[in-house]
Amino acid sequence: MKSKKSQEKVCIKKRISVQAAKSKGRRLQQWTAKQISELLGIPCGKDEEICSREMGQSGTDVRLSRSVKKLFPYSIETKCQERFNIVSAIEQAKANQEEGTEWLLIFSKNRFDKIASMDATHFFSLLKRIKTLEDSKKKTK
Question: What is the pLDDT of residues 75-94, one digit of tens each?
Fold first, then answer.
């Protein structure tokens, strides 16, 4: 039987370093930029029209050129944390929201699927537009 002391060691979670945490956040930003790049067929990376913002800079986490914003009108905030406060994340996304765009949050957590979050009214207006496009395609056939 295990001693009480060895049982206590099992319950202690090791905190990751600041450098490792920033690296996780950077990877989520880069993943998000790559997804937008693949969706639009526009290259992403340093000095491209789509790129992840360097750590410590203010503004959206994924930088989009003006022409890309016309195709993908979102101001993106990414959060890669084990625990996150969705209300404060939304407040931060709104604070960084650029003119002519909607806010979009991308969350990630270890061993958990990535999550996208946006204003519900905007989400349903997107679905209505998709349905309208699908209906118009059916009519033209």
Answer: 999 998 888 889 999 999 99
pLDDT tens, residue by residue, 50-74: 999 887 788 899 999 999 999 999 9
The whole-model pTM stands at 0.81
User: Residue 55 corresponds to which amino acid?
Assistant: M
DSSP for 1-50 reads: ---HHHHHHHHPPPPPPHHHHHHHHHHHHHHHHHHHHHHHT--BSTTSSE
Alpha-carbon span 126 to 112, nearest angstrom: 26
List the one residue out of 129, 132, 67 whose CA is nearest residue 100. Answer: 67
**Cβ–Cβ < 8 Å for 12, 30:** no
Dihedral (CA of 14, 11, 87, 72) sign: positive
- Dihedral angle over CA of 121, 110, 24, 14, nearest 10: 130
Residue type for position 107: F
Helix (H/G/I), strand (E/B), else coil: 114: strand
